[in-house]
Write a structure and sequence with these properties.
Layout (H helix, E strand, L loop, with lengths): L3 H18 L2 E14 L8 E10 L4 E12 L1 E5 L2 E21 L2 E18 L2 E19 L4 E16 L2 E18 L1
Antiparallel strand pairs: 1-2, 1-9, 2-3, 3-5, 4-5, 5-6, 6-7, 7-8, 8-9
Length: 182
């Protein structure tokens, strides 16, 4: 009985090692049109994201994405203009369903961390929280061993954000390009 556990662990390690050795890496970039809705007035910045990871096979990919605001959403409060940024970090598992011609439908989900920053002349404030993200998309192959994708992701959906109560929802429509490498 005691020898079965180390043998099983060694077997799992060999399987993981074989999967990693046959994996294909990927890197990509995307434009993200985000909407952070706090139930009062949505914040809608435009972000750029960098994505990287590995495709274990045709059906499963593991990756991470970091998104930062390129064009903040601006609100006027009295005589102040406040710029709002929404930055995200997203670790995901992506499941692909080939549909023909190299195109795939997919779902992705994982852990996310969201930071909202409001800044005006000489002052800024930041709140952040973590949650679970889920999304879906369509990818079509490019001619250079990559793909273009259109995806919709709910990065955050909760009734509390960094200690504040309310209905908080962060969604994104992403236009993605990813290239594979070995």
């Amino acid at each position: 009985m005691d020898r079965k556990i180390p043998a099983a662990m060694a077997g799992l390690l060999l399987l993981f090692s074989a999967a990693v050795n046959s994996a294909t890496g990927f890197m990509g970039i995307s434009g993200s049109f985000l909407s952070f809705d706090d139930g009062v007035e949505p914040i809608e910045p435009i972000n750029i994201a960098i994505r990287a990871g590995m495709a274990l096979n045709e059906y499963i990919e593991l990756g991470g994405e970091y998104s930062l605001t390129m064009i903040p959403d601006t609100f006027t409060f009295g005589s102040f203009e406040i710029d709002y940024d929404v930055d995200t970090t997203f670790l995901f598992v992506k499941a692909n369903l080939p549909i023909g011609g190299g195109s795939k439908l997919y779902v992705l989900g994982g852990a996310t961390h969201v930071t909202v920053t409001g800044a005006t002349v000489g002052a800024s404030a930041e709140i952040d929280d973590s949650g679970t993200a889920i999304g879906f998309g369509l990818q079509v192959p490019s001619e250079d061993n990559g793909y273009f994708a259109f995806e919709y992701v709910t990065y955050y959906d909760d009734s509390e954000f960094d200690g504040f109560n309310g209905d908080f929802l962060l969604t994104g429509f992403n236009l993605v390009y990813v290239g594979y490498f070995r």
